[in-house]
Write a structure and sequence with these properties.
Elements (H helix, E strand, L loop, with lengths): L1 H29 L8 H30 L7 H28 L10 H47 L5
Helix pairs in contact: 1-2, 1-4, 2-3, 3-4
Length: 165
């Protein structure tokens, strides 16, 4: 049971770290805003990374869900993990492929054609919002798991302490 708890914590932490690293560190540095970078080239480099990172986070969250299935400290961490998994699968299976399909039909340097560019921006916002929801759910599940684990450790330690008579 302790190994499953450790694996669940590790998988959730890895998934959360992948989302945060991707959205805050990796993708902003690839966005083509540098003086020598081309936005269209950056899009071509970013697309496979986004798909792989989305797959990694979904697999880690699924592994954590499996580890949490028979957890005795309540079902809220499992529910939060399954909600995050749903959001991540939605991102990987529908939002990212649609975003990449639409963004290939626009020139990101000239921002033309304008109606398609608006669709790219709308789908990008959807992708980031769903990723943020998944990150919040994973962080809440991790925090709740660790709080419940700490509470059960305190209960066990209070049972083993000698009582003053």
């Amino acid at each position: 049971m302790a190994v499953r708890n450790l694996l669940a914590t590790f998988a959730l932490a890895l998934a959360l770290g992948a989302i945060v690293a991707g959205q805050l560190l990796i993708f902003p540095n690839i966005d083509g805003s540098g003086p020598l970078a081309d936005a269209n080239l950056a899009r071509a480099l970013r697309a496979p990374l986004e798909l792989r990172l989305a797959t990694l986070t979904a697999v880690c969250t699924a592994a954590a869900s499996v580890c949490l299935l028979n957890h005795t400290d309540g079902k809220l961490p499992l529910t939060l993990t399954l909600a995050a998994l749903t959001a991540l699968v939605l991102n990987r299976a529908w939002i990212l492929p649609e975003l990449h399909s639409i963004s290939q039909r626009v020139d990101l340097v000239t921002q033309l054609p304008a109606p398609r560019m608006e669709r790219v921006q709308a789908w990008t916002l959807r992708y980031q919002m769903v990723d943020a929801i998944a990150a919040i759910a994973i962080a809440a599940a991790l925090l709740l798991r660790e709080t419940l684990a700490l509470r059960s450790l305190r209960a066990i330690s209070s049972l083993t302490k000698p009582r003053d008579t």
